[in-house]
């Protein structure tokens, strides 16, 4: 289901969304953009973007490309070494 709230996602999926959100926040900071500025540049609602950055919202492939373009990075940069940002969804 598109834009499925994160609380219905499996823990591993949620961990990946949160890691992507951390990467977006990092790149947004480097670009000197506010959440509202990045959302506008990527053609999305600010509230939705805040949910994406917070790992609570699922983002489409089209929006991933739009975010990369707005940040001035390659799509690959959004996902490069993303595993290093993932926290264990099932700590023992």
What topology does this entry show?
Layout: H1 11-31, H2 35-41, H3 46-53, H4 61-71, H5 75-79
Helix pairs in contact: 2-3
Provide an overview of this structure.
With 92 residues, this protein is mainly α. The chain has one domain: lambda repressor-like DNA-binding domains (434 Repressor (Amino-terminal Domain), Orthogonal Bundle). Helix 2 crosses helix 3. The longest helix is centred in the N-terminal third of the chain and has 21 residues. The termini are far apart.
Average pLDDT over all residues: 88
Contiguous low-pLDDT stretches (5 residues minimum) are: none
Largest sheet: none
Question: What's the gyration radius in Å?
Answer: 13 Å
Q: How would you sum up this structure in a few lines?
A:
The protein is an all-alpha fold. The chain is built from five helices and no strands. It is globular and about 30 Å long.
Features of this protein?
434 Repressor (Amino-terminal Domain); mainly alpha; 92 residues
